[in-house]
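Title: Comparing notes on inverse folding

I've been comparing how different people in this forum approach sequence design from structure. To keep things fair, I'm posting one structure and asking everyone to reply with a full sequence. Here's the target:
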């Protein structure tokens, strides 16, 4: 059984643990937090061995998933660098921290993969993007895909694209919740009960998303299928164009991407 250590079991670490547990994958999990109190709480909530000793975690586990806040990464890694060897694989989910920074702070001996998951990992519908860093071989990437594959879909990109990934799929769930909330308000505006409106909104997004993924057609072709001449949909689409929906969504992703770049000081 592969032993996986999670350094910093906060919101995202917890989503991963819940996802991995519900996928009944054959991994043994151990985790750390900064404070003993948080470790006790996480153990109670998740049933995972949890403590505050990162050196022990590095001794116990070959695979370390780094889930602390970006500004905490350097201190955490330099404190355990002496314990890290070529047997270790570090999977960092920390936004905007590069594999080269991680490699430097961790002593330069282990393989490093940068990973950007998103919170639907909690229900095994995550989108995780991986970028290979120093000393990574295909066996490392395969293992990382297996681990994150338990909580959703995975894709690989060059590391230079990871800020864009952060801006799109990393932050994306928040944009989509806002869209669902707006659709729900719209439903209420046209007379639907709130609960029904939210169901219609969320299931419509889910169904349309699955059409894109399963049929593999261009979204514009699927949109054309729904849009009959002089029908209702074209009027709705026109309102969306007047409100610059597409430009607004593009700006949202670009703004989040630029923020990810700035966090690193680029
Ligand atoms: N949230 C998202 O949607 C998302 C998506 C993709 C990537 N990420 C990335 O995921 C990372 C974590 O985000 P989050 O929202 O999960 O943050 P969070 O909830 O604040 O969790 C951070 C965790 O790190 C622990 N920690 C801090 N210092 C530590 C140390 N020295 N040793 C061990 N554990 C330590 C904290 O423990 P205490 O509670 O004891 O302080 C806490 O459990 C970030 O780097 C973020 O960029 C987040």
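Reply #1:
Here's my take.
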């Amino acid at each position: 059984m592969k032993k996986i250590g999670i350094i910093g079991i906060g919101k995202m670490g917890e989503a991963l643990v819940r996802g991995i547990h519900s996928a009944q994958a054959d991994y043994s999990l151990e985790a750390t937090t900064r404070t003993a109190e948080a470790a006790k709480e996480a153990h109670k909530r998740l049933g995972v061995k949890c403590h505050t000793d990162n050196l022990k975690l590095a001794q116990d586990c070959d695979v370390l998933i780094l889930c602390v806040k970006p500004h905490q990464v350097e201190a955490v890694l330099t404190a355990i660098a002496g314990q890290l060897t070529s047997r270790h694989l570090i999977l960092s989910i920390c936004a905007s921290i590069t594999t080269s920074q991680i490699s430097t702070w961790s002593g330069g001996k282990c393989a490093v993969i940068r990973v950007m998951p998103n919170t639907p990992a909690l229900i095994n519908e995550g989108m995780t993007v991986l970028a290979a860093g120093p000393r990574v071989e295909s066996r490392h990437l395969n293992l990382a895909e297996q681990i994150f594959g338990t909580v959703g879909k995975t894709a690989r990109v060059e590391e230079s694209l990871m800020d864009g990934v952060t801006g799109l799929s990393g932050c994306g769930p928040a944009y989509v919740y806002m869209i669902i909330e707006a659709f729900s308000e719209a439903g209420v505006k046209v007379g639907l009960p709130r609960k029904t409106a939210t169901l219609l909104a969320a299931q419509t997004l889910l169904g349309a998303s699955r059409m894109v993924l399963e049929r593999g057609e261009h979204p514009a072709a699927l949109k054309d299928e729904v849009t009959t001449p002089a029908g209702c949909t074209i009027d709705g689409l026109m309102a969306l164009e007047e409100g610059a929906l597409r430009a607004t969504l593009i700006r949202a992703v670009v703004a989040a991407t630029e923020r990810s770049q700035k966090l690193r000081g680029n």
